[in-house]
Amino acid sequence: MKIGLMFVNSGPFSQPELLAHLAVTAEKAGVESLWTVEHVVIPQGYQSPYPYSKSGKIPGGEDVAIPDPLLPLSFVAAITSKVKLATGVMILPQRHPIYVAKELATLDLLSHGRTILGIGSGWLKEEFDALGLDFHQRGARTDEAMQALRALWNDNPSNFHGKQFNFGPVLSFPKPAQKGGVPIHVGGHSPAAARRAGRLGDGFFPAIGEIPKLNELFGLMREEAAKHGRKADAIELSCMGKASLDTIKKFQDIGISRIVVPPPGFDKDNLSRGLDQLGNDIIAKL
Amino acid sequence: MKAGIIFANSGPFSRPELFGQLAREAEEIGFDSIWTVEHVVIPKPHMPYPGSKDGQMPGGDEVPIPDPLIPLAYAAAITSKIKLATGIVILPQRHPLYLAKQLATIDLLSHGRMLLGIGSGWMKEEFEAVDVDFHARGARTDESIQALRALWTENPTTFHGKHFHFHDVKSLPKPAQAGGIPIHVGGHSPAAARRAGRFGDGFFPTIVNPEKLKEVFGLMRDAAKEAGRNPDAIELTAMAPAKIDAIKAVQDIGVTRVVFGPPGSDPAKLRAGLERIANDVIAKI
């Protein structure tokens, strides 16, 4: 079982000293991956419900600092050597895949192949509006963008002719360090996300921890994978949850190979203590 | 005279070892800035490159040109003084909501060392690949500059233009630099000169001929005065060969920073090459 840390770019981790401390200490403790979150803007007074809390509002309020999800990973790449650098998630349909492909290839090269692209299709309609994008096309744009990214990472020249994105022949260099491109993990816990993971994902990452719900989603994912002639067992499963030896066993039993947890503190001392504990009491015993 | 190194991200400098070495050594030797270049893709075929006689891109169409921002965040982690600059980002191809946040992030990670060099682009086929109207590039560039500044200094931010349109959005974090990240307008067309005069914190024509430079600086100054701005407050950067005479010639017309390509890509010789520029040329100006 691999243990990852979530939210490593937001709130107090937008400051470089704390981010650097988190990254270096986490790597030493045996944390496998660091995950960043994204909202490019938060529209004031938004009404779309946040899907991960009962209140329906983004944790930290509308004025929480949410830096770009990729640049902090590049900063971390320079001061670490093993820990994986992941987005969890990037809102894929809001960006053009030609840019995302180049950004991820650059990060993958600078980190010697340590990146994972976690993607979501977005939920905050007002954020799409601010960008002048059609919220209702987000599913179709996500599917196309995933395929366009793979064409840009693997083909030379690259072509993609879809309804949402249409380009080629184009040259996109450098290519990622990882052969076959950067693995794409589909985030979210909707049926649509589960089916997308089955159809197109290298991984599936519902950011929840309830076993029955996870089982249901994994079932949907497997059905869809089979329908498309893909091997469901090759799709890596991650979830959010509590990293205790008991829960880890339960997650393992349903096929999960990575648990992502929030940082165990928001200042240097608490982080050091919490990561030390995580390393000694959990990771060392896996 | 300040000195910078341009093309810091492309070709062999796409590798982290060589890029990291360049950033560290340039800082140690006293260069004030490193500058990254951008083409997000090279379509086949494409318009002739305006910077060379044969229309070919330096290094050819398959030369690696990494993203211009990601390497600067990497450099932020291993340096502490050197400025991190783009030279240039093709501004109208990107959405200012994304760029504002990306640059604020680098500025925060680097304690206020970000400098944004922008251009309006020249390769029509590149615009087509990312689905942006090439003929609107000037208008998009102007709007984008204003949108970026609004996003960096106001909370919430509202911007109503023809190309970009958003209302009461929160873009946080803000950059470390109070007032936002300085924007230097690149290019040597009359349009670029006028844009620098109207909107720029700096002007960066990537040409070396002092007569031609004088001409575009004149256009820039006229446009600044017309817009009620002080042209002397607009910082002037130029490319120049690493020669004392050539640099003195651009200094005489107001240039305060010159940028050079990296002195080769052999890791064993990089430091010596950088020292040669610093000690034999810049130190003698």
The amount of beta strand of chain B, in percent, is 15-25%
**Largest sheet of chain A at a glance?**
8 strands, parallel, barrel
Order of helices and strands of chain B: EHEEHEHEHHEEEHEHEHEH
Biggest interface, which chains? A-B, 58 and 56 residues
Specify the biggest β-sheet of chain B: 8 strands, parallel, barrel
Given the C-alpha coordinates, what overall shape of chain B results?
A: globular
Number of strands of chain A: 11
Number of strands of chain B: 11
Distance between the termini of chain A: 7 Å
Low-confidence stretches of chain B: none
Termini separation of chain B (Å)? 7 Å
Provide the residue-averaged pLDDT of chain B.
97
Mean pLDDT of chain A: 97
Q: Which strand order does the major sheet of chain A show? A: 1-2-4-5-8-9-10-11
**Lateral strand order in the biggest sheet of chain B:** 1-2-4-5-8-9-10-11
SS strand fraction of chain A: 15-25%
Structural class of chain A: alpha/beta
- What's the oligomerization state? heterodimer
**Helix-residue proportion of chain B:** 25-40%
Principal-axes geometry of chain A comes out as globular
Characterise the protein shown here.
The complex is a heterodimer of chains A (286) and B (285). Helix content of chain A is 38%, strand content 17%. Chain A has 286 residues and is α/β, with parallel strands linked by helices. In chain A, the strands form two sheets. In chain A, strands 1-2-4-5-8-9-10-11 form an eight-stranded parallel beta barrel, surrounded by four helices. In chain A, helix 6 (191-200) crosses helix 7 (211-227). The radius of gyration of chain A is 18 Å and the shape is globular. The N and C termini of chain A lie close together (7 Å). With 285 residues, chain B is an alpha/beta fold. Chain B is built from nine helices and eleven strands. In chain B, helix 1 packs across helix 2 and helix 6 (190-199) packs across helix 7 (210-226). The longest helix of chain B has 17 residues, at 137-153. Classes of the chains: A alpha/beta (286), B alpha/beta (285). Strand 3 (42-43) of chain A pairs antiparallel with strand 7 of chain B, so a sheet runs across the interface.
